[in-house]
Amino acid sequence: AKDAAKALCEEVIAFGAEGSLAERTLSRWYAHRYPAVLAFARHAADDYAAERLRTGRLTFQDLLLHAARLLRESPSARGELGKRYRRLLVDEFQDTDPIQAEVVFLLAADDPDETDWRKTVARPGALFVVGDPKQSIYRFRRADIAIYQQAKRCFEAWRDEDGKNGGDPRGDVLELIANFRSRPSIGAFVDEEWRRRFPREATGEQAAFAPLATRRGPAEPGETEGVWCYTVQPADPGRDMNVATEDAARVAAWIDARIKAGERKPGDFLILPYHRKFLARYAEALEARNIPVQVTGSEILIEDELAELRLLLAALTDPSDETLAVAVLIGLFFGIDHEELARHALEEGSFRIAGAPRGLEGPVADAMATLRDWWKLSRRVPADVAVETIVEDLGLVPYAAASGLGAARAGAIGYVLQVIREIGLEGDTSLRAAIEALDVTLEQGEAEAPLEPGREDVVRIMNLHRAKGTEAPIVVLAAPTGWEDFPPWLRVARSEDGGADGWTEIKSSRQGGFVQRIVARPLDWLEHQRVEQQFEAAQVDRLLYVAVTRAADELLVSRCPDRRAEKRSFWQPLYARLTRDVPPRELEGVAPEGRRELSRTAQSIVAEAEAIRRERELLATPSYLAVAATEIAKAGGEAILTRGSGGRGREWGTSVHTALEAAVRGAEGDTLRAVGRAALLANERPVRPDGEPRELDELVALAESIAGSELFARARAAEPVLAEVPFAWRRERDGRVEIVEGVVDLAFREPDGWVLADWKTDVVEDAAVRAARQELYQRQLDLYAEAWEALTGEPVKERLLVSLADR
pLDDT tens digit string along 173-184? Predict the structure, then answer.
């Protein structure tokens, strides 16, 4: 039976082998589907791009594409931007993708009518790029080595063409080969190994070999330098995490021993696992020995806390949802058991956060009161302020800091709060926006925010792709397992004329993504896949080159002798030379010290907390007051501002201000219309069924009317002319310092002084209320003028209130 099963298995493999009738038939079926699937995907991508453009929600890639198109299609825009950015310096050019390269070369181009960046000629001295093709490791994000080589040929063409014509060359290529980082032993290892990995001349997929011309001398007596391979032998090497855990323990012990011996300091060490999933293991091992550590590129370490915080914010967003409230109560932050919940329910207690308290007592009632306070807070203040207060009330930062990898976890919370704060500064201060920020953070899986930014004397741990551009005296290529050489799923070929062709294999996922089924692919996909594998193999050689050239004095390469682990080690290509030239060594260290126990009485902790509270209250007393000029002017007139209010609200007023600012800066015609359209959409003004703003024609007409007024004629004749000018003016009042802030809508200087104008868009029918409002507005404008004279040292001769509702 065993032999029959084996024979049957071989027959099945042969039946579907490459070149068989079954394989050829199936390949044709996949190729038949391929155009239909691509057409569907292309239509979906085009529709999504159009929707992003219509709603003004462009991605960073969208901005790059539109910037490149603007430079390509508008000679006037390119000429103006070229004058503004006369000199461009691009570092790490090998990481540049085609769109970025196009933007750079078009900005530097001398001929504004040339649309192909590869055919442009740069202005003299306009473009300086630095790059190393041997460190091109981001092909997966379109930073293809071919782009670097095309750019290099541009510089060579500029040099040769100008040289033939007897003029000074506009371009040249200089080779910088000196290495001031590495010791000779590391340089010798790199040269010997990569002389056979890199070709003598550059090819389409690989950079040319260049010797690592080290300029440092050998180590002094008592110092250590060289390249070594050390072994890791866990009890169960078949599991990747076991290998990484054992390796982390050995590396941490070895680093600990060298620090305690006075040979090295923490900042001398850089640990580089290939995969980021292992980073936390090394950080934990070092932290257990009280060695300061900084992790870069790790998966976020506080998923549970963030998920609970997201749940809490969702409950505050919908305070009538009792299910969400109960989920929060039984979660991490309150930890209330089901018996207490049942008791509260039997006493007719409510789980509605927005509900009125019933005078009940107990942990559930106390928790509901806390939730109710947070809900009220979230209605009074912006989301970033509310979330920070909630995080502080919960003690989330000290909770994270007291856990394993405390510095990294507390820093991750700081990162999340910063993301929410940035979204608030962009204008969306709602809890919904805060929840979206949490979702984005969880999806990205990374939080780059050390608890002590700028601290230098720490052991750095990062995955290999993050290491480019860094260096350290001692580099450990760690975690000798976990690498999977997956077959390519995408092939991109770039031609000399700037075109690009692509092919892909489209799959559907089942069982959580572990099982994938082919949906469609081109007929010659296997050949494309073989070609792409050559490019990926070449990039692996460059990744290894980046890894070994980070070290200045010592390079240690981890190895697990187990066959299963070794074939999955990214460092495996280095083993043959290392084990031949230098015997493997064991990393020796010292046992970790146990954590010290801190014994404190409750009274001392309470007293210290009270002292800290008093100190914080003292420090929280403001030494100055920042106040808006509008608040000062309107003090005592709030009732007048709420009586007879008309018009279309703040969003319409903001749109009007934006359009008039553009008009002041010279926008007209289609440009003014585009600015007005974007302003109305950004301020969520009403739209027609086709998605266009209903008020666009009216807004443009209003802006053109003002632009044709006598006031604008005077402004155009003046110098300078300023629009939407923010200011901050320091003054002393009632024994304290005030920072008065405001924005002047229009300011221009005539020979005998400045003219200030302030736009008003509100509509008031009642004459008395209108007069009272005008008095407040004039008070505001007078304050603007007082600030302007103080800041400029020049007189303000006119102060104009312009009512746009009358036009």
Answer: 998 888 899 999
Give the N- to C-terminal CA distance of the chain in Å, as an integer.
95
3-class DSSP state for residue 616? helix
Kindly give, in sequence order, each residue whose CB lies less than 8 Å from that of residue 180, ignoring residues fewer than 6 positions away.
Answer: 215, 216
Cα separation of 381 and 373, whole Å? 12
- Which residue(s) pair with 459 in the sheet? 293
User: Residue 125 corresponds to which amino acid?
Assistant: G
Helix axes of 75-84 and 60-73: crossing angle, nearest 10 degrees: 110
**Helix runs in 549-601, H state only:** 563-566, 575-581
For residue 401, give every residue at least 6 positions away whose Cβ sits within 8 Å of its Cβ, in sequence order, or none: 407, 409, 410, 451
d(CA 381, CA 430) in angstroms, rounded, equals 9
Q: What's the CA dihedral at 560, 566, 572, 574 to 10 degrees?
A: 40
Q: What single DSSP character describes residue 488?
A: P
Beta-strand runs (E) in 682-804: 721-733, 736-750, 753-760, 796-803
Q: What is the dihedral of CA 349, 351, 352, 357, to 10 degrees?
A: 30
Sign of CA dihedral 760, 763, 767, 769: negative
Residue 65, Cβ neighbours under 10 Å: how many? 16
Integer angstrom CA distances of residue 30 from 16, 36, 318: 15, 11, 48
- Burial label for 89, CB within 10 Å (0-12, 13-18, 19+), is exposed
How large is the average pLDDT for residues 22-43? 92
Q: Are 529 and 493 in contact (CB under 8 A)?
A: no
Backbone angles phi, psi at 233, to 5 degrees: -135, 80
State mean pLDDT over 732-741: 84
**Rounded to 5°, angle at Cα 21 from 15 and 22:** 55
Secondary structure in 3-state letters for 131-163:
CCHHHCCCHHHCCCHHHHHHHHHHHHHHHHHHH
- What integer is the mean pLDDT of 491-500? 82
> What gap in Å lies between CA 478 and CA 248, rounded to an integer?
8
Query: How far apart are the C-alpha atoms of 530 and 465, rounded to whole Å?
Result: 24
- Least Cα distance to 463 among 484, 474, 447, 479 occurs for 479
* Block residue for tokens 């461009």: 88
Type and span of the H or E element at 558: strand 551-559
3-state secondary structure 768-781: HHHHHHHHHHHHHH
C-beta of residue 104 within 8 angstroms of C-beta of residue 95: no
What does the block give as tokens for 100? Answer: 């970025």
User: Which pLDDT does position 452 carry in this prediction?
Assistant: 61
Average pLDDT, stretch 215-231? Answer: 87
DSSP notation for 331-385: STTT---HHHHHHHHHTT----TTSPP----SHHHHHHHHHHHHHHHHHHS-HHH
Which backbone phi and psi does 515 adopt, to 5 degrees? -115, 125
Name the amino acid, one letter, at 108. Answer: A
Structure tokens at 670: 């289609």
Q: Extract the tokens encoding 761.
A: 């868009």
Rounded mean pLDDT, 512-520: 76
CA–CA dist 546, 464 (Å, integer) = 8
**Helix, strand, coil percent values for the chain (each to nearest 5):** 50, 15, 35
Quote the tokens at residue 80. Answer: 């103006």
**pTM of the full structure:** 0.68
Tokens of 141: 């994000």
Specify the residue for token string 């038939």. 25
Q: Report the alpha-carbon distance of residue 624 to residue 708 in Å, rounded.
A: 43
Tokens of 290: 């009280």
> Do residues 698 and 685 touch, judged by C-beta distance below 8 A?
no
Rounded Cα distance, 369 and 352, in Å? 11
CA trace torsion 785, 791, 792, 798 (10° rounding): 0
Q: Which residues sit opposite 478 in a β-bridge?
A: 273
pLDDT in tens, 561-589: 888 888 899 999 999 888 887 777 778 77
Helices 406-425 and 279-287 pack at an angle, to 10 degrees, of: 120
Residue 362, pLDDT score: 86
On the question of pLDDT at 733 being above 70, the answer is: yes
